[in-house]
Amino acid sequence: MPVAGSRSKTLFDKLWTAHEIVRREDGDCLLWVDRHYVHEGSFHAFNRLAERDAPVAEPGLTIGVADHYVPTRGSRRTIANPEIARMVRQLVDNTARHGIRLFGLDDPRQGIVHVVGPEQGLTLPGLLIVCGDSHTSTHGALGAFAFGIGASEVAHVLTTQTIWQRKPKRMRIAVEGTSGPGITAKDIALSIIARIGADGATGHAIEFAGTAIRALSIEGRLTLCNMSIEAGARCGMVAPDATTFAYLKGRPFAPQGAEFDRAVEDWAALVSDADAAFDTEVRIEAADIAPIVTWGTSPEDALPIDARVPDPAQEPDAARARYLREALDYMGIAPGKQLTDIAVDRVFIGSCTNSRIEDLRAAAAVLAGRVSKVPGLVSPGSSLVKRQAEEEGLDRIFRDAGLEWVESGCSMCVGINGDLIAPGERCASTTNRNFRGRQGPGARTHLMSPAMVAAAAVSGHLADVRPLIAGRKV
Amino acid sequence: MDKFTHLTATACPLPIENLNTDQILPARFLKWPRSQGLGRALLRDLRFSEDDREIADFPLNRPEWRAARILVGARNFGCGSSREAAVYALYDYGIRCVIAPSFGDIFAGNAVQNGLLAAVVSEDDAQAIAEALARTPSLPLTVDLERQTILCGNQVYDFAIDKVRRLRLLNGWDDLDLTRSYADTIAAFKARDRAARPWAQPVAQLPSSKE
User: Regarding the domain delimited by A11-167, which CATH topology (the fold level of the hierarchy) does it fall under?
Assistant: First the structure.
């Protein structure tokens, strides 16, 4: 047992220690869970509880959000598709049965779970947060230890409010300096993944640090931590600071008044000690980051917008050449093609990665007074984000540009609510995964920031946003 | 949970990097209940064309590998979505072991919960095993979890697995039983923690209240 103060600790070490209930000799630890978010996909776990007639241990710490299957168009009160209606109803029934709060379709605060949690102040610094969704890493932006789990673990957390974990290694990714105009958290995230690979952080808890990270808004940090899983990380986090506390103050479920001040005192200690050791360190210069897009079928297949896609014929490694060939073939892109020569068929702005108010503002700043050359969908991250955007007149900019302004949900990021891209179609997308068929069988996805999606929309092809925002207020 | 101790079976090479859970089980099958069996949906869009015809040269469709119970994958197998149903699809198809140089973190956790062994080998060894299978498709592999070895022809390869996960697979332990044995410790932690971190409670407790 280490004596307190005898060893410097990272932020992650501190979060881990605060939640450790049991540490077995074999290294397995039982951790306390502060928040458990559930959604329509959590039905496997609820079914297991039903089989055993088991209660939920802490319904007050469990929060339901309808997002994965919810329609974004047409009536949301009576869902036309019976299978989708069943998925949403299962969540309503399961949460009602166990006395779990639900942000359902009739709630003005409904939205994507990873947008709603922070927005409502349910996600706080120092909390351990789990959800049966890999993008739970998002919540680390506020200084939480947050990670995605599978259905068996969801059932375990529902039953015990605890989870067994092995402590991952610690990785610090420092992004230093000032990034150029038009560079967003998404560009930082994709640059990191391109550099370390889609498994570059496997088995690690990432702490994002450095002056460029400190300069990010909470929205930007949420985007960055959201994408940690695309580098294979167990979780990603940013140490809470004045930006975090200002964001949380007055949020409905956050501590209020004197209790908030007391909490801030505790939260302020959630930083890595100056001489704390990390297992892996990565350093990136913010000034080197250009607007970035993916060209292939993994988020690691990302390049600056002024680059050409790879040419397998130039690749000496045979296995790598085959990987490139298969990715380009699926994407329908000729080897060596200039990225800006790739025409797109549609655009999508939404998902837990990039659908918050700041994302919508960034896209609208490019689209204002312009027309999209291709059809597209804009799905705000929550119904509250939607309302705010409408108050700011952003919906009009999207509509005037020819894009569809729809309700909030996971929508075209995962496509299970029926928002799909047709086979062979190419989409510039603010989402997180350009996997084969992710947005529908045969769909071709290019990941990028909201501003870059807007640039692709008004250009009709992948495009550098920087000339399009010169002289504009962004 | 089923135990895993050792297995001798047909093995199918699947040398696809970053083979994510969206490929292993496409999202449109996530609505299916487990009772329906998810084996048919395994790798659906890689195994079948858009008009639902089998793609003859996909490894798992080849006659010699159709009944494989072991897959030999590539780097970052099972990355992406946390969907445990991807493991159900593998299991329901008959797969009991996946050998690869690395696995998605959440996938590896889901695997052990369902008695599926995710065995980590070096890039070189994965390639050597896949090449041996390509030369002799009927060559069975013997995976021994006790000794952490893979017998491929007359070659023996070591594999890595987290020691706790290994024990869970070998014994078929259920997490819940283990956790229940710590009920008092959990209750004590909870009481202590509530006092130490009062801010960790969400402010509004009643599900029906509109704050």
Answer: Aconitase; domain 3 (3.30.499)
Domains in chain B: ranges and CATH: 6-174 (3.20.19.10)
Q: Answer whether A405's CB lies under 8 Å from A395's CB.
A: yes
C-alpha of B189 from chain center = 32
CB pairs under 8 A between A and B: 183
CB contact at 8 A, A358 and A380: no
- Tell me how far apart the alpha carbons of residues B88 and B20 are, in angstroms, rounded to a whole number: 14
Report CA-CA distances (Å) from B176 to A105, A160, A297, B106, B163.
33, 8, 38, 18, 19
Among B residues 25-84, those touching chain A with beta carbons less than 8 Å apart = 26-28, 30-31, 33-34, 45, 50, 75-76, 79-84
Given an 8 Å threshold on Cβ–Cβ distance, is A166 in contact with B22? no
Chain B within 8 Å of A405 (Cβ-Cβ)? no
3-state secondary structure of A319: helix
Nearest to A437 among B26, B182, B200 (CB): B26
Phi, then psi, of A258 in degrees rounded to 5: -65, -30
Show Cβ contacts of residue A396 under 8 Å, excluding neighbours closer than 6 positions.
Answer: none
A115-144 pLDDT, tens digit each: 999 999 999 999 999 999 999 999 999 999
Q: Whole-angstrom Cα distance, residue A303 to residue A307?
A: 6
Asked if the C-beta of B18 comes within 8 angstroms of chain A's C-beta atoms, the answer is yes
Spatial CA neighbour of A141 closest among A120, A114, A180: A114
Show me where the domains of chain A are located: 11-167, 294-469
The residue ranges of chain B whose pLDDT is under 70 are 204-211
CATH assignment of A294-469?
3.30.499.10
Measure the CA angle with vertex A353, ends A296 and A406; round to 5°.
105
B80 Cα to chain A: minimum distance (Å): 7
- Kindly report the CA angle at B145 between B143 and B149, in degrees rounded to 5? 55
Q: Give me the percent of chain A exceeding a pLDDT of 70.
A: 99
Instruction: Note the pLDDT tens digit of each residue in A38-72.
Output: 999 999 999 999 999 999 999 999 999 999 999 99
Place of tokens 């900019």: A397
3-state secondary structure A61-106: HEEEECCCCCCCCCCCCCCCCHHHHHHHHHHHHHHHHCCCEEECCC
Asked if residue A438 lies in contact with residue A445, where contact means CB atoms within 8 angstroms, the answer is yes
pTM above 0.90, yes or no: yes
Nearest CA to B12 out of B76, B60, B44, B75 is that of B60
Verify whether the Cβ–Cβ distance A21 to B182 is below 8 Å.
yes
Out of A160, A161, A202, the one facing B105 most closely (by C-beta) is A202
Interface check for A330 against chain B (CB to CB < 8 A): the answer is no
Write the residue in B28, B164, B201 that is nearest to A26 by C-beta. Answer: B164
> Across the interface, which of B76, B199, B204 has its CB nearest the CB of A124?
B199
* Contact state of B178 with A164 under an 8 Å Cβ cutoff: yes
Distance in Å, alpha carbon of A83 to nearest chain B alpha carbon: 8
Nearest-Cα distance to chain A for B155, in Å, is: 23
Give dist(CA A380, CA A382) in Å, integer: 6
Contacts of A26 in chain B (CB under 8 A): 163-164, 167
| Same fold for the pair A11-167 and A294-469 | yes
For residue A242, give every residue at least 6 positions away whose Cβ sits within 8 Å of its Cβ, in sequence order, or none: none
Rounded (5°) CA angle A371-A183-A383:
60
